[in-house]
Amino acid sequence: xxxxxxxxxxxxxxxxxxxxxxxxxxxxxxxxxxxxxxxxxxxxxxxxxxxxxxxxxxxxxxxxxxxxxxxxxxxxxxxxxxxxxxxxxxxxxxxxxxxxxxxxxxxxxxxxxxxxxxxxxxxxxxxxxxxxxxxxxxxxxxxxxxxxxxxxxxxxxxxxxxxxxxxxxxxxxxxxxxxxxxxxxxxxxxxxxxxxxxxxxxxxxxxxxxxxxxxxxxxxxxxxxxxxxxxxxxxxxxxxxxxxxxx
Amino acid sequence: xxxxxxxxxxxxxxxxxxxxxxxxxxxxxxxxxxxxxxxxxxxxxxxxxxxxxxxxxxxxxxxxxxxxxxxxxxxxxxxxxxxxxxxxxxxxxxxxxxxxxxxxxxxxxxxxxxxxxxxxxxxxxxxxxxxxxxxxxxxxxxxxxxxxxxxxxxxxxxxxxxxxxxxxxxxxxxxxxxxxxxxxxxxxxxxxxxxxxxxxxxxxxxxxxxxxxxxxxxxxxxxxxxxxxxxxxxxxxxxxxxxxxxxxxxxxxxxxxxxxxxxxxxxxxxxxxxxxxxxxxxxxxxxxxxxxxxxxxxxxxxxxxxxxxxxxxxxxxxxxxxxxxxxxxxxxxxxxxxxxxxxxxxxxxxxxxxxxxxxxxxxxxxxxxxxxxxxxxxxxxxxxxxxxxxxxxxxxxxxxxxxxxxxxxxxxxxxxxxxxxxxxxxxxxxxxxxxxxxxxxxxxxxxxxxxxxxxxxxxxxxxxxxxxxxxxxxxxxxxxxxxxxxxxx
Lengths: 247, 489
Fold this sequence. Notes:
The complex is a heterodimer. By secondary structure, chain A is of the alpha/beta class. In chain A, 38% of the residues lie in helices and 29% in strands. In chain A, helix 6 (148-162) packs parallel to helix 7. In chain B, the strands form two sheets. In chain B, strands 3, 4, 6, 8, 9, 11, 13, 14, 16, 18 and 20 form an eleven-stranded mixed sheet that branches. Chain B has a ten-stranded mixed sheet with strand order 2-1-5-7-10-12-15-17-19-21, with helices on one face. In chain B, helix 2 (37-46) packs antiparallel against helix 3 and helix 10 (436-444) packs across helix 11. Chain B starts with a helix and ends in a 6-residue tail after the last helix.
């Protein structure tokens, strides 16, 4: 589904990604771990197409297509979803409006009919119920005055609604208490299927207790320095990143 | 110099011609270019006006000659040559169109983008037999379509072109015209008093709640024709009316002057809700073309508990100079001003309000949302004056500015004059930018860059958009998006 080949990227003048190679097949969940500043968030932004994150060499194929040639909204409509580490506030825009606009924009892009307000309400109520999110959140402006936990739940709700093919989770666990963490993990696990894939970026092992990855990679100084299965995460938890980087 | 001389000569020759018989020229569809006493007489004669109105126009014209063009607003433009404008042009007697298929596709595109209902498009475009909302459509200075009159008449509501009101209800017009905006008021209002050609008149009798929203659509379409509309609305004791005014204009190359006057009179326990959506041609991205909009809008709350609310969405015009105001004379009267002003590319907007508190316990609310993009300059200018007798009067002002890009400007100029010991005046102001982070967040959810911008800006304006009547709210939201096209990327 996703094929990253020798990816180099800069932010400003600084090279952050220094040759990433990674292959993710449909049905797989990969975790990327690594110390602060290793380039984890940069990788997720490059994949989502954020301005200012410039690819200097290498290529990324998504479902066989050149991902880097697509605009951020095209990538989203083609099924890439990024759950933000720091979800952004949009004052005055009700979450329900935001979700409906996004949902319909993606449908429109794919040539599917847009849904009306009533249909949408029914759909979103199903999702909030599944995820145990209060409907009250839908009336509030996007992320404005949300607690850290509420913001992350809102990300999971958006993901549940948009049903992406490739889930990118950028430190979704940071700032979450254990209950919220379970809800977030539950959201991902519900979507897990042989057709979908996920890339989970995390600093700590604990999220991986709830979303069990098929592969774990260690990112340090802009490169993947080690790959393995779930046990690698546990090993890291025990020994720390320093031991690995030195190795 | 040469051009000016030429103009002077032309004017002289025109005046000459008139000396010998402008009456025979009354059949002409367009008055000769330029302004003079004869032109004022020509307009008045064209409209078959009574003597008192001609006299009033002439007083205004003579006063105007003594006035100086105001320069205090934060707008810059080449000096207007008032002798290079046609002050009267009747509508071309176009054949009635059979269907929308015969309408200029460019115009239809604008309607479509705005989501104007088909039926209404037909009325706007002048399709035969199209009647829906009470639209008093003003095309080229003269109303060519007035609908739903009968239903309104049943309630005793008078809603008609002002020229008809002059003919059919002269006592009302004479009593109220110029009573809120006197002919000496300001340069443009005085000019308007001398040469106004049309506009709407509305009278709501005592205790009547107007059964429908009243709309007026303006469209300017003859090159070089300045529009001088005059609107007069009177709400008698205990009555209510909601008035919608919306404008679309096709592309133009010439600068077009527009100097309208709107007067509202609100008696005891009455209420007028006046909503405007204005999207006149703002000029291209270099500021070429575009309309100069110098408007005087003022409401007088004459009785106790009278209420007026101005809601405006200003997105068009090259230059906007507009301060819908409230004179709160009656005790407990209420004035509200909700405004969205969007300036993109080279647009300049200097807009705000005046709240003049005279009566006891009067209260006013100002919510102003200014959005600047491109190289535009957007100024909020507001006056809150608490008179000596305005005991316990209250004002609350919120003035928010949003910047898109780094080449535009937002300015806030509040004036507060308080002569009352017991009055309360509050002013809040914020300035913010649309962040790259917000845009990226929306785009990552599937919205295009422009859709993202429209969504964010609509969120910023939400408090004001909510004040618009339902009929206008959807159109206004789309307009916000359209106005900012090209402001990103």
